[in-house]
């Protein structure tokens, strides 16, 4: 017998259909309906609400073989398939992350195809793979943030069994697995949850209605979210979760959902005997997220740091549009490299108000902030999804990489950036509802038209070619230009691993010198100096030492080190042996 249960306080009657046979369910006082039915281990099932003949999928469906509008299927991972019993996990500090989209990472776009490319990541020096959301969404391809059945794994990628194989393969190679999860909204197509219960409020955020985290009936909604997070960590052996746009979580209760999730994750980690990591995406610049609970914070392990991305990108590229307006100077870059946030109780012209709060660098290590030159957002939310490699010289790309990979923060790469991939990463969807598809495309074009783009230049997210264009072209690894940049990334990561100063997470140990006019900047990490020339012309920087690594050919000068335009050099103030130099 199988126990079928669903939280559905809204309908007056609920029945469960199992492999074509309909069975009555019994309601309890807390709004849960239950029925025990003899069924096959992989039975298809769904729920009938009141007199509506439509069979709806289970809100906690473990598998959706026929898509988010079809019936659910019973599923349990085979314990005998797991091969990672010796895996002890990886903590955030000291890690190097790599964000990828399963569908666009390889031509086939599956977990199994991605496994075939994991050795590339190991050779690069990556220690943690971060997957964009893989929960069930409508259609065949999507960024993943339109998920509607959070407990199921997208079938086009390989479903739950494919994810299990992928985690096994990662752990066998020493790679931790991070999963991006979205708890701030539900996608527009296949969202049947409100028919069961008050999952949503009347309030809205950028992407849709807000989740009900603090209103009547919110306790089971919060449990729905926490149980989902724990499912990935416990059942799929995931090592970390990236929590999407937590600033859009509206929670006015005394114990914020994030603090509740952090406490339960910590409890599970103690039981499993391996570290479990929670990483927030937030645009609030609020240290509360990563302040320990004992010190009054939520106790999350880390968060993305967009300020450092903006500071690095604008300083190197010269772009100043939109939210880049306050960034761009070397002074801004120096401040962000040594303080975590640039906007920390300061005026943001983009927002038209004071923004952020200072990070207590005595309490919070820099490793709690993830730093990057690219993410899916910073590439894909450009009008045409163009990467920095399309607009910058190779030396500029190398400078950006050096500033991030040799920073005190936890570095993260976005798939393909290590070789300067020329393929775009564009916003793509495949909604089966033509009305939703048309609205998505029109909204995307209108959004960028407001910022001065010709709407004809903005790709149609529903066009299959938009998705196909966004797939990595692995043949580029055989091109000299791309191979050279890849070698630089490998060398930077190897240097980070070789020198303890470079993984020191305390911002109080970092110093920065710069010349705004000459456009050079020096980052001091113990006895290691990263010297970057952001101008197109050679400069002499008053720093001397043994060269450990360089892009371009530095020249020793009486007054310092000559650094070619758009290049960097890493020097040591101490004498080093030949074997300590990174080639």
Describe the secondary-structure layout.
Blueprint: E1 2-7, E2 14-18, E3 21-24, E4 26-27, E5 32-37, E6 44-49, E7 72-73, E8 97-100, H1 102-105, H2 111-115, H3 118-124, E9 128-131, E10 135-136, E11 149-153, H4 159-172, E12 176-181, H5 193-196, E13 200-204, E14 209-211, H6 218-235, E15 240-243, H7 257-272, E16 277-280, E17 302-304, H8 306-317, H9 330-339, E18 346-348, E19 353-355, E20 369-372, H10 376-380, H11 388-391, H12 394-405, E21 410-414, H13 434-449, H14 464-469, H15 480-498, E22 510-515, E23 520-525, E24 528-533, E25 539-541, E26 546-551, E27 555-557, E28 560-563, E29 567-572
Parallel strand pairs: 8-9, 8-21, 9-12, 12-15, 15-16, 16-17, 17-20, 20-21
Antiparallel strand pairs: 1-5, 2-3, 2-6, 4-5, 6-7, 10-11, 13-14, 18-19, 22-23, 23-24, 24-29, 25-28, 26-29, 27-28
Helix pairs in contact: 6-7, 8-9, 8-12, 12-15
